[in-house]
Amino acid sequence: MTALSGEQVRAVPKIELHIHLEGTFRPARVVELAAMAGEDPPRPVDRLFAVDNLADFLETLDWVCGLVRDQPTAEQVAYDFATYAHDQGIVYAEVIVNPTHWSGLTTAELFAACARGFDRAQADGLGDFRLLPSILRQQSEQEARQLVEWIEGAGLDRIVGLSIDGNEDAAGRTGPRFAPAYADAARIGLGRTAHAGESSGAEGVRDAIELLGVSRIDHGVRCIEDTGVLGMVLERGITLNVCLTSNCTLLYSSLDDHPIRELAAAGVHFTINTDDPETLGISLCSEITLAAEHLGWKLSDLIAAQHRAVDATFCSEADKQALRALIDQTVGT
């Protein structure tokens, strides 16, 4: 049993750095959008994401996001996420959005709508939520660089970084292809993260660090398979944004097989996240409780974990200081 109560987990102000907006559609919203579009779900909504592999998962994700065909709907999806986040005690999140999934909107339309949804949410006191446009791993070097060029010209303050997601195993090695886009992102001051070390092995983590210049990695847990790569993660202070249930759905057969204990013992900086909470039937509070039980966390460990998450954010130093103060004031430290 954990020394943390559910009330303690809920009460501590929390940061989430690895969550996809595409994975936050509530079932009722999916039903509503499908009816508006005159489409039938590929499976019953309560089993919509009951799939056996990442390819089928991504195909279903495309179908769901494709139901969003105007900006007001996209704005509401962003606001829906903010409502969920507030209920979880999440005060700040950097939300990954991959425009390739949203076939009904242009990149500009999508991010403008999401930014408006997050602006409205912050005005309503729900929290501070930023955006991470994401490259799909199957895209070309030119498409990736065009996304960064668009970010530079868009001038949306809520965009704070660049990500890559998609099926690493199916796409093969992509670090060299996307290194120019990441160099562009560094030039314009964007934070840089990438999915690696899940459907790819430790070599994906190495490429993300050496070729893309990331300061954090989404998943990254398979760095444990190569002592050299693990050493690189430690030496450069790379933060791993870990998603336990997600990893145990697609990668490990059980939590006991997950290397989170070994990573913690090695001194790796990591955060606890959900990845796709609605599709996995989880929440950030439930994932933190799972981690606390597995790692033997006390309240002080949870607070320290949130401070580590603040350190890994892509927001300004002033915003980081405000988040640290909020955490400490709330828990009375």
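^ that was protein a. below is b, sequence first then the tokens
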Amino acid sequence: MQTSHCYIGLAQWNHSAWSDGPLAGNIPRHALGRYSRYFSTVEGNTTFYGLPETHTVQEWYQNTPDHFRFCFKLPKTITHELSLRHCEAELNEALQRLSALQEKLGLVCIQLPDSFSPDEMGTLERFLLGLPKELNYGIEVRHLGFYQKDDTERRFNALLMEQGINRIQFDTRALFNNPTPDAETQDALSAKPKVPLHVIATGQSPMVRFITARDWQGTLNYLDPWLNKISQWLQEGRTPFVFLHTPSNTHAPEVAEYFAEQLNKRIAGSALFNNWPIPQKDQSSLF
């Protein structure tokens, strides 16, 4: 039986704080290549604000290894401004642009605002039914009406299962339950959604977004249970995507490395992640 794999990545492939270690570099256009040596996927937030040029997408494809997968959000014009209505032209343009990634396009992510409520279930259903079937999708809802464990939520989950669309889970418990007064944590608290965590796989590629508190090592009690759930999904033949965040993402690479190591201890070779190179000791110091 072939082993399923878990894609592991971050919210970005470049960060000013990553000035030391294997992700460090002075040439921004080389950042994706450095990142993809170790990580197997990335969340693409840039497409939420605007579509990249076709030649840029082609460069992303060329600068990453065969196994790498991009997970990009649909533009906010579709999800937030038009609220999934009368957006056929915008959707077609976005999907056509992203399709230049070919097999490296992991999930197309539909992130809905907290103002999009279950009252608009009909609109949501029509939109999802109209999506091209050849691509993989994930959806993240933020209105609390989708988290009541009632007939509405069951109907929503059933719709996703019927269409093979993955319900994205954003686990923010570690952040909200361990607030600190520093600026980066306060910024994250104001920007991230505080919604209940309902763990479910509605498709073949469940996506988990996890954000730690500033002291990420002190909140592993929130992260470690995900190792069991991801292992279960792998044993079911699913292909999970896991994205690790910290309040400012300064230490997100360390969290991802920890998660990959722990997952491989449970199911050897399941985490698509290359460990950091071991620094070479200065031989002159030995004599």
